[in-house]
Amino acid sequence: MDAMTHDLAELRKETGIGATGVTIDRDVPVIDMSDFGTRRADITEELWQAATEIGFFQLKNHGIPQELIDTAFAQSAQLFAKPEATKAKMPLKPGTNAGWEYKAQVRPSTGTADQKESYQITLPRMAGLWPDTAEMPDFKASMLAFERHNWALAMRVLSCFADKLGVSPAVFIDGHDPLSDQYQSTLRLLHYLDMKDAKPEDFKFWRAGAHTDFDCLTLLHQRSGQGGLQVCPGKDSDGRVLGWTDVPPQDGIITCNIGDMLMRWSDDQLLSNLHRVRMPKEGESLDARYSIAYFAQANMDTVLQGPAQKYEPITAHDYIQMRLGANFAGKAG
Ligand SMILES: O=C(O)CCC(=O)C(=O)O
Ligand SMILES: [Fe+2]
What we know:
This protein is of the alpha+beta class. It has a single domain, classed as Jelly Rolls, CATH 2.60.120.330. The chain has eight helices and 15 strands. It has an eight-stranded mixed β-sheet with strand order 2-3-11-8-13-6-5-4. A five-stranded mixed β-sheet has the order 1-10-9-12-7, with no helix packed on it. Strand 2, helix 2 (36-53) and strand 3 form a beta-alpha-beta unit. Bound molecules: 2-oxoglutaric acid (AKG) and fe (ii) ion (FE2). 2-oxoglutaric acid binds at residues 188, 190, 208, 213, 220, 222, 229, 275, 277, 291, 293.
């Protein structure tokens, strides 16, 4: 096939959100958060540009101690290494974002389950869902500390967006108040399965199928050498063929994306775009992959409405219910 027929064939095959698409090299901006107190205005401009143009950015010198991140990953690996019967005592109740699940998340974009297990922490919903303290004495304290640090960083980023939106930072900070029983931000520990003994056909699945996040802002911690995250800034998509960009993990860097809730809350100024986790390619490590995501999601009773009032006001609770409903109807999300 010559290049042009090949391109056309590729174009026909690779359409739709769940398809492989094409790979495009491009940079996801890395934003330096150091000296935030004095550099706030500049940092705000950089965050705003990235969030309004592609919806993805990376943070360095973000202030979360590396030791806390390493401990959270070590505790996560210990948890996932426990026997299935132990983990099954902490089952995820669908729609709660709390507890453990194994290959239970089916993405509407692909119709198949993500090749992963996850354990999710949503603080007001954790009764009976923490691992046994005798077996994992440091788990809960490490996760609580890590969760709070992620919350604080997320609020710092949201405060910058508040400045540009012309609203008080309190709109976001009170809207994600962690002391409220309405709090529904989530720390999600992720374990993508080892592919060393996998069959060739297993590689046609996704570690995480293409989706946008429901929340306001996601902070994603990755481990270097454990790549696979790909992002798709909408505006570069070529017709219906989507262009995907690898975001290789780097030590000390947190990858962030805007979620659907903040897109609505900002009257569509801040962009929630597609991302996914692909299988390892030939020559890449077939080991398990671990990542940890913090989803800053407004409290259930927070009313979402942007400054330009483009959409009707809606509580974050009703918004999530609406999105879950759309998922069951087979739409992307
Ligand atoms: O594990 C990753 O790299 C991405 C996870 C993700 O996008 C999600 O859980 O929403
Ligand atoms: Fe995601």
